[in-house]
Amino acid sequence: MKRILLSLLALSLAGAGLFYGSQAYFSDVEESVGNTFAAGALDLQIDSQAHYAGLTCTPVIGDGELVTGYVWKEDDGVKTTRPDLIDDPCDGTWAATDLTTEKFFTLEDVKPGDEGENTISMRVIDNPAYMCVTIDNLVDKDNGQTEPELVVDTADDVGELSQEIRFFAWADNGLGTGEAGNNKWDVGEPKLFSNTEGPASDVLGGKVYPLYTPLNGAFPGDTTQYIGLYWCYGKLLVDETLNTLTCDGVGGTNLTQTDSMSADISFYVEQARNNENFVCPSLVETRVFNQWPAYENGEGNEGVYGTKVWEAEGRAGDIGADNPARTWEVGVGTNTQGATQDNNQSPDTDYDWVDNQATPFTLSYNAATGMAIFSVTGAPTQTYNVGAGVGAKLWVAVKANGTYTGDVENLMMNGNPLANLTSTGGAVNSLEVLGLNPSQDFTLTGNITFDYEVGAKNSDFVFKVEVSQ
C-alpha cells in the first residue's frame, strides 16, 4: 500500500512540473505618458468708462465702421452742463486691455463746478492675485499767470490745481442695492479712501492703495471687479444717508487759472498662492537695521545718526512682583519715559496693554504747527509741540526683552506700506525711513502686538519712533 501511494505522489509532482513549465507569466503594465509642468498665467487687464458734465464718453459707429477716437453722448434723462462737447472727441473710455498709452483723464478746460466719474474695471487672468494701486509723480504746473490770477497768486512757479480738484472712490461691487459696475455709488458699496474724500494733492499725491492683500483676501481669478472714481473741481459733498455725490463750485478763486496737474496711476498684481507674506510695493524708501540709532548727543556711537529731537513711545512691562499688571507708558515728546520712569515733562500716560492683541496706533505730525499727536487705541491721546519743520530722519524700532515677543505690523507711512517689525529675546528690529521732508506733514499707522509670559520680571516691550536732524 505504501508503494502505491509513493507512485501516485510521483505522478502528481511530475504533472505539476509539466504545468509550470508551459504557462505564461501573469503581468500588468501601467504607463504615464508626457508628464508636464505648465506655468499658470497672471495677466491683469483694465478697462474704463468716462463721464464728464453729464455726458458719457462712448465709441460710436459711423458709416458701418468704428469711428476713430470717441465722442461725447448724453446719458438718457441726464442734462449736461456742456452741450458744446457733444460729438467732440474724448478720452477715458476703452475696452479691457493691457495699459500702454491709455489715460483715464485728459481734460483741457475744466472750471469750478465741473465734475466727472470713471468706472474702472479690473480682471485677472487666470489665478487669484493680490493687487495694489500706486498713484505718484503728481505734478502741479502754473503755466504762466493771467492778470486775475496775479492778484491772488504770488507764487508764479507753483500750480495749485491739485488742491482744488477733489476725489471720492468706492468699490462699485453692487453688494448693496445696486448693480456692479453701474457707475453709481449705491447703498452698501464701501468707500475706498480713509478720509472719505480729499484733494488730489492728498489722495493722489504719492499713494499706494492695497486693494487685495492677505489681510482682506485675494482678487479671485477670472472675475471682474469695479472701482468708481468721482472728481469735483470745488467743494465735494458726500451724503452718506442718501448715497449722493454733489459738486459745488461756489467759493472757487482765480488762484488756479491756467494751472494744470498730472499724475501716474499704476496697477500691480502678484500671485496669491504660496505668498502669505505679500505687501504692496512702497514709494517710501527704508533701510532695515538690528540696532537702535546712534546719535551725536551721546546715545550710542556718536555722529552716526544726527541729533534726536523728539520721539513717540509705547512700552509695556512687568514692573515687579507687587505690580503684576502690564501697565507702562504711551507718550510723545523729547523723552517719553515719564510717568513710570523719571517723571520728566514729556506728556505720557499709563496704559494697560492687552496681551497678544493687535493694538492700532497713529502718529501724526503737522509741520505748520509743529504738533505731534500719538494715539493708541484705548489710551488717552498724547500731544506735544516739537516745533515747526523739525526733523529730517525718522526711525521706527521694536525691542522685546526677556520672554516677551513684540510685533509691529501693517506699518504705513502716509498710506505707503513699510516693512513689518518683530523682536524677541531683547533683539532690536528697526527701520529708517529715508527722504522725510521736515516741511511736510506725515502720518505713521500700524498695529502693535506683544506677547508676554506671566511672572516674567524685568522684561519689557518697547515700540519707539524717533525723529532726528
**Main sheet summary:** 8 strands, antiparallel
Amino- and carboxy-terminal Cα gap: 118 Å
Q: Low-confidence parts, pLDDT < 50 over ≥5 residues?
A: 1-22, 297-303, 338-345
Rg estimate, integer Å: 33 Å
Tell me, briefly, the overall form.
Answer: globular
Q: Please report the total strand number as a whole number.
A: 29
Helix content: under 10%
* SS strand fraction: 35-45%
Structural class, by secondary structure, is mainly beta
| Separate helix tally | 5
| Average residue-wise pLDDT | 78
How would you characterize the overall build of this protein?
This protein is mainly beta and about 475 residues long. The strands form 6 sheets. Strands 1, 2, 5, 6, 7, 9, 10 and 12 form an 8-stranded antiparallel β-sheet that branches. Strand 20 and strand 21 form a beta hairpin. The termini are far apart.
Which features characterize this protein?
single chain; 469 residues; mainly beta; eight-stranded antiparallel β-sheet; seven-stranded antiparallel β-sheet; 5 helices; 29 strands; 9% helix; globular; disordered N terminus
Write the layout of secondary structure elements.
Layout: H1 2-22, E1 42-52, E2 55-58, E3 61-62, E4 65-66, E5 71-74, E6 94-97, E7 115-126, E8 129-141, H2 147-152, H3 161-164, E9 165-171, E10 198-199, H4 200-203, E11 207-212, E12 224-233, E13 235-239, E14 244-248, E15 260-271, E16 286-289, E17 308-317, E18 327-333, H5 338-342, E19 348-352, E20 359-366, E21 371-376, E22 382-385, E23 393-400, E24 405-413, E25 416-417, E26 421-424, E27 428-433, E28 442-451, E29 460-468
Antiparallel strand pairs: 1-2, 1-6, 1-7, 2-5, 3-4, 7-12, 8-11, 8-15, 9-10, 9-12, 13-14, 16-27, 17-18, 17-29, 18-19, 20-21, 20-28, 21-22, 23-27, 23-29, 24-25, 24-26, 24-28
